[in-house]
Amino acid sequence: MQEEKADRRFYRALMGRVGLVRFRVRHLETDLHIQAVRDLSRKCSARIIDARTGIETYASKHPGFLETYTPLPADEFAPRVVREMLDAARIANTGPMAAVAGAIAQYVGEMCISETGGGDVIVENGGDIFLKVSSPVTISIYAADSPLSGKVGIELKEDYTPAGVCTSSGVIGHSRSFGSAHAVTVISKNTALSDAVATAMGNLLKTHSDIEPVLEKMQNIPGVDGGLIIFDDRLGAWGNVNLVPV
What are residue 131's DSSP bridge partners? Predict the structure, then answer.
């Protein structure tokens, strides 16, 4: 089981940014790969526990929170991470758990920025990324057995960050998807929103002919600034997506 988990995250060996310290923080199912100007393992661990405790406590008092595939009402009294999940889910038309990985990545990443006085940080949570950088960064897209996997990257300029870049797949990963695309990547300023929208759009992709209408649908979602779809050997992109070879 441990070998399987390690294999699913092999891409972390390829992640590295000059000048940043790399470290891994885990708590139960949450497993983050973090790059920051210094090692913040202890503080990040405490932040993860805080986030998960808030989610688990809220879920225990709100039956269906963890299971639903449809949005739930806003709750101004919910913990911050839960509010982010609820808000993202309403915009994306998904259940709140579709936003959990992105919400936790951003929650931890924002703490890292505060602790380092605005220093660069990249937080990856199962392929969902929160980042704040001071120079351009290229994010390679892994798309399982697609011939385009690992050959296409998205370059983000530093002035767009902090931002969230999240990917959903109907082929790989432990998250539930009702679609068949190899990769659906969404870019926005809110990582929870990127996560939820990537899931929602991925659910709609059944055949190659769905690529264009899904990209058009993505353009009408408030807060979303760009998207990329890889389906077999087909690729479609829209918005703030500067494609580069990797």
Answer: 122, 163
